Amino acid sequence: MDAKKEYGRPSLWRVCTAAVAGSAIEGFDFIAYGTASALVFGKVFFANLDPATATIASFGTFASGLLARPLGGLIFGHYGDRIGRKTMLSITLIMMGLSTGMIGLVPSYASIGVWAPILLVLMRLLQGLAFGGEFGGAILLAVEHAPPKLKGFLGALPLAGSPVGLLMSATSFAIVTRLPESDFLAWGWRLPFVASVLLVIGGYYIRQSIPETPDFVVVQERNKTARIPALDVLRAHWKLLLLSVGNKIGEVTIYYTASVFLISYAPRLGISKSDTLEALMIGAACQLVGMLVAGWLCSTVGARNVSRMGGIAVAVCISAIIALAELRAPLYLTLAISIALGLVHPLMYAPEAALYSAQFPAELRYSGISLGIQIGAAIGGGIVPIIATKLTEHYGNMTSVAIYVGATGLLGSLCAHLMLPTDVDIATSQRMVSENRRRVT
User: So where are the chain's domains?
Assistant: First the structure.
């Protein structure tokens, strides 16, 4: 029986629901750490340091999770290409839930001294390993079930789980920050982390009901499973892997500039925590809408074309985003974050599923996608808050941050231009050639 014929439209939407639900939960778990890094961890786990150094140290623990993501992509990508996508997604979800819940239980520096930041980093590393394995699998769950014309849109749906996770994170922290400052620092910030375990249980139940992807079933039936998939990627597809990394750097830099760095910088602009988190919630809601629109564009004009436009949009818009933030008012900070997350970032983020999937054959796809995304995220995302903080400390303004982010956007656009096109990109190019010929004749 043809594996492709086993899945009808109802099954397709059930798979997409599972992919979105799981990525939203893991996105919440992973992103909540970034919010807490900006608002809490410097005071709770690095109380022995001065405020500026504590902030950088807090972002250092944040970066550790991103640096662990490539290893997670390597490990789970290997077994995802050999055993299957579904099994790895269940394991990563449980791993993420346990590590996130434990973060909410780590004692403060005042209670156990240096062991507090050590335990925090260990839990963050486990988060990074889990997220590194989750991301590529969630993408493939949707893309490998989707018909060619819908890969762009349906592939963007799991990625839309990130703004859902960001929205849940910002909302939960907006609630707990209403507590008195002493209660918030003592126990209030822990509630979102501990409560996320309930979400993980629900997500695991949903994912258990999904089938394996048709593409992987075909790989198994034809006995094409690679012995060491990552090694084959490095041998035969290293150029495409590097291009994926470069494109991801352009996307993830603008994301963490808006969702982490600007949140940490807001107090220097005289903006309260509640106004800052409200701006982040509105930005996350805009991002969700932007992802759906950008996903539709990917299925209309092609993922590679959209990604190229996105990189240029980052370079063009980042100065205006920074200038708005520096106007030192909640309204302008909200507008800056909304433009960054709702308009610019989706143009680079939504295409990743369909575009990166087109770069690697099915038997190497989990490893190839995971390595490209997670190496790019580690390089571009993990160091963004640290570099941006250092630049603003050195120059006294955020102009240098705008130059840095804009350059990574252009890098992402160039890499997208050099990557293999998707089926929709090819069809769009052929359509444009035909239209031009008709005009000439």
Answer: 3-432
11-15, 83-87, 211-215, 221-225: range with lowest mean pLDDT: 11-15
* One-character DSSP codes across 287-342: HHHHHHHHHHHHHHH-HHHHHHHHHHHHHHHHHHHHHHHTT--HHHHHHHHHHIII
> What phi and psi, each to the nearest 5 degrees, are found at residue 84?
145, 155
Contacts of 33 (CB under 8 A, 6+ apart): 62, 65, 100, 103, 124, 127
Look up the CATH architecture of domain 3-432. Answer: Up-down Bundle (1.20)
- What is d(CA 344, CA 22) in angstroms, rounded to the nearest whole number? 25
Query: What does DSSP assign to residue 147?
Result: -
Report, as an integer, the average pLDDT of 17-46: 77
- Return all residues near 425 (Cβ < 8 A) that are at least 6 apart: 301, 302, 303, 304, 305
For 66-78, b/e burial (b = at least 16 CB within 10 A) is: bbbbbbbbbbbbb
* The model's pTM: 0.83
